[in-house]
Amino acid sequence: MNNHFFSIVIPTYNRASYVKKTVESLLQQRYDQFEIIVVDDGSSDNTEEIISAIESYKVHYYKKENAERGAARNYGARLAKGTYINFFDSDDLAYPNHLMEANNAINYFYQPEVLHLGYDIKDVNGIMIKKVDYLPQTINESLIDGNHLSCNGVFLRKDIAWQSPFSENRLLSASEDYALWLRLASRYDFYCWNVITSTIVNHDQRSVLNIKHDEFLLRMEALKDELLADPFFQKRYKKKWNKFRAYQDVLISLHLAMAKYDKRVSLSYLWSAITFRPFIILTRRFLAALKNILL
């Protein structure tokens, strides 16, 4: 058997206080045929020291100049020896069944190009916030209304990962994963295996919790530009573009409202969402955005 059926690529940047637990959780897998590739994206902390102290032949450490997560993931993918690549965040945790269930799903779906496993979200004290074990067997159509996936749960066949790398556009950083999922969903069946195998740790330093308004708005524009430039996306989702735009505008409005940004700007994005898809006013996300604006 291939001793590296799975290659787990962990991009990291100044996460020395988290990455050791991440790697140790992956080393506790019930399935043994894997390697771990830690790509240090120019950290200035003691990440190298922390990883070097982990005594396992499965763990490989590489340091490169900072270029954001998309570039770090692509760097790791090019080094991968496994048949499937899993991109795992350096501040989250895997359960012992992570690779075993991935192997089960791969066999069940006959070596698919891409699949996603279930996950949960917990706070730093281990208190459950949310479980995501309810996605449709193929999520292609549902992805257009938001990123329901955890990067930790996505497994890509290596040949597909090499053909379809993450965008390395810095403006897209933190949405480069969603952009890739949509590009992949434009080309292949995107399967879901709803067994929970990993947890997202909702700590204060997560980049999604520390959004700068101007950078966030530029990121949303970069996401639209990325998808408009993809002919496969345009062919698959052309009729759903207004739906995508409506949900993106609601997301922008919600983020700005939660950050106590100018209410008029938040309201303008809600109005834009209505123009793209009037029935969006009936969704929970729209009502949540409106509630945060009015508070």
Which CATH architecture of the largest domain would you pick?
Answer: Alpha-Beta Complex
Low-confidence stretches: none
DSSP, total strands: 9
Shape designation: globular
Mean pLDDT: 94
| SSE topology string | EHEHEHEEHEEEHHEHHHHH
Assembly level: single chain
- Enumerate how many helices there are, as a single number: 11
Content-based structural category: alpha/beta
What is the CATH topology of the largest domain?
Spore Coat Polysaccharide Biosynthesis Protein SpsA, Chain A
Estimate what percentage of residues fall within beta strands.
15-25%
Helix percent band: 40-55%
What does this 3D model show about the protein?
By secondary structure, this protein is of the alpha/beta class. The protein has 2 domains: 6-208, Spore Coat Polysaccharide Biosynthesis Protein SpsA, Chain A (Alpha-Beta Complex), CATH 3.90.550; 230-294. Helices cover 42% and strands 19% of the residues. Strands 1, 2, 3, 4, 5, 6, 7, 8 and 9 form a 9-stranded mixed beta sheet that branches. Helix 2 (47-52) links the parallel strand 2 and strand 3 (59-63). The termini are far apart. The model has no long low-confidence stretch (mean pLDDT 94).
